[in-house]
């Protein structure tokens, strides 16, 4: 089970389920509510039980790739039913794309997040900051990987590395090339036995290629090939785990067009530590650094000690996080109403209050 990433913590959470006769498995693939899980001995397709579907209040409670789950297996471990999701140590999540204000889990129980940006056209410090907020929010350790280093002159490469380091707030930055394998050994070193790594980044930056390089064989399709699922539908929604021969566990994710923040205010401080430090000098302890008098953050922008792009990026992400916090309080209530758990009248009152403001 060690190669699955099983730890003492997981064992602790697993005990009551094992006592009830369930087996413990890890979710290794998720694609629109159809799953694959792996036990100590077998990989098999899995579905969630009717009870779990009914009691899961929101998408957050549905299994995600990387989750440890309590299952019943059937037909000589060729089928599984997922009965419960074990408590998570970390959870990478975003606001789901589109109109609905919903948390969408990306991966669970991840130790390290590789934020991958391609040095061809994809490198963008502002986008990097957004990914870093999401990574800090998850509880996993972010590492910034700059791919396709072979396409840049040594001088341009150095410039990009410095720009990335300037916004990465202490997170390690590694430039590499899957073509020349420069930097790959350094990446490999981070992935110890039983360590779970999730790769996130835009489509085409080289996530699947890196996993193939680390695995030493072509396990995943690359080059923007859209995979077809069992019904022949093209899908880009697939997230899956690859187990490395050395014991590392890698989660590949498809590129996400939108990476909406979810309750990110606390992790903004981790992503912008120099701003958090400056804020201690603001006159008001709840200063939003937008219009207040004697704001140390705006003063730093004005006297040039804080980069104005960095400040603008912070302000934008902070606004988004705040808006999200407001929205989700009401949205969460509506969701519970839909499930019939609380009285409708209370919600109506809240909605009225919101409208009046
Ligand atoms: N030159 C170069 N091309 C790369 C590198 N890594 C990936 N690619 C190419 O980038 C394209 C997209 O890679 P892929 O792994 O499918 O990206 P993903 O969408 O992030 O999984 C493919 O054509 C790869 O061959 C690299 O380090 N150098
Ligand atoms: Mg891919
Ligand atoms: Zn301020």
Nutshell version of this structure?
The protein is of the alpha/beta class and 357 residues long. It is built from 11 helices and 15 strands. The protein has 3 domains: 2-85, OB fold (Dihydrolipoamide Acetyltransferase, E2P), CATH 2.40.50.140; 91-252, Rossmann fold, CATH 3.40.50.300; 265-356, Ribonucleotide Reductase Protein R1, domain 1 (Orthogonal Bundle).
Tell me what you see in this structure:
By secondary structure, the protein is an alpha/beta fold. It folds into three domains: 2-85, Nucleic acid-binding proteins (OB fold (Dihydrolipoamide Acetyltransferase, E2P), Beta Barrel); 91-252, P-loop containing nucleotide triphosphate hydrolases (Rossmann fold, 3-Layer(aba) Sandwich), CATH 3.40.50; 265-356, Ribonucleotide Reductase Protein R1, domain 1 (Orthogonal Bundle), CATH 1.10.40.50. It is 36% helix and 23% strand. It has helices spanning 8-19, 50-55, 125-138, 154-167, 184-190, 207-215, 265-271, 273-279, 296-302, 308-338, 344-356, and strands spanning 23-31, 34-38, 43-48, 68-74, 79-85, 91-95, 103-108, 112-118, 141-147, 172-175, 196-200, 227-228, 234-235, 239-243, 249-252. The strands form three sheets. It has a five-stranded mixed beta barrel. Strands 6-7 form a two-stranded antiparallel sheet. A hairpin with a 5-residue loop joins β14 (239-243) and β15. α7 crosses α8 (273-279) and α10 (308-338) packs antiparallel against α11. The radius of gyration is 22 Å and the shape is globular. The protein starts with 7 loop residues before the first helix and ends with a helix. It binds guanosine-5'-diphosphate, magnesium ion and zinc ion (ZN). The site of guanosine-5'-diphosphate has 18 residues, from α6.
